[in-house]
Amino acid sequence: MATTNYSEYGLVNTTKMFAHAINGGFAVPAFNIYNMETLCAIVTAARHTHSPLIIAVSESALKYMGENMLMGMIKGLKINPSEQIVLHLDHGSSVEACINAIKIGFSSVMIDASKLPFKKNADATKRVIEFAKKYNVSVESEIGILYGTEDENTKSDIHEFTIPEMAEKFVNETHTDSLAIAIGTSHGVYKPTTDTNKLRFDILSNIQSRMENTPLVLHGASIVPQRIVETINKFGGKITASQGIDPHQLYITATKTHICKINMDTDLRLAFTSAVRQSLYKTPENINPREYLSMARDNVCNNCLYAIREIMNSENKI
Hints:
There is one protein chain. The protein contains 12 helices and 10 strands. It has helices spanning 15-24, 36-49, 59-65, 67-76, 95-104, 118-132, 164-174, 201-210, 226-234, 247-256, 266-282, 289-312, and strands spanning 28-32, 53-58, 85-92, 108-111, 138-143, 148-151, 154-156, 178-181, 216-218, 259-264.
C-alpha cells in the first residue's frame, strides 16, 4: 500500500502546536468525530475561533466511516496548513493500526499499550515511533489506565493513576512526542471520582517537574453537562447517575500546566444525541434526516465553541 503524506491534505503534526501550548497557557482541543456532521461541526468551531484543532478518530470510527470516505471528507475541507489542524488516531490498539493510519494520511497517532506491562508498552511505542519518524508523524503514548467505556477499543474496569517515576522512565526510554497520563479523568458518561472529587494535581505536578519539556495529554475529559443529559432523558433517553469532570479543574489543567491536549468525546455524543431526540420527539412526522442532523451538527459545534473558549483557552491561539 502506497503511503500518502498528510501534507497533501494541508494537515500538520503536533510538534509546534504543543510547544506553543506550553508557552501560551492553553491546550489544543482533541474532538472525536464519527461522521460528516461531527467533522464539519468541530472544524467550523475551530475556524470560527481561530483555534488549533486535533481531529480525533478512533479505530472504531475509522472502521465505521471507512478509510476512503474519511480521507475524502478531509480532502473536502480544503485545509490550509496555517489553520493548524491535525488528524489523529485515538487509542490505536496495536502497532499495525498506527502504521496503517500513518500510511493513509494521519499526521499524528496514539499507540495505547497502557494495559500491557511496562516493557511491552515501551517496545510497542518505540516501534511506532521508528516508523512514524520516516514521515514526520507525531506519536502519543500512555502510562496509567483510565476507567470507563467509549467503544470496544477504549474500555477498562480499573483505574490506575500514573506513577511519576514510571512516566519519567518511559519518556526517557521511548522519547515519545507526548504522553497521556491518568490523574482522575475517565472515559464515558459515568465518571467515578476521587475522594475529594478533584483531579490529582499533585501527581500532575510531580510528573511535570520530572519532564519539563514533555507535552502531556488528558483523556476522558468530558464535563457531561447535566442540562444536556436532562434533555436526552426528557425526550425518551435513559441516562442515570451520569457525572463529568469539573470544567474549572479542566481550565486549570489547560492554562496552568503542561497539559497540551485535552480529549473530549462523550460531550459531543451527548450534544448530538440530545438534538436528534428533541427534534424527532417534537416533529414525529419528520422523515428528512437533513433537518435533525443539521440540528445535531449545530449542537455539537456549540459544545465545541464552549470548550474552546471556556476550558481550552485556545481561541485565537493559532
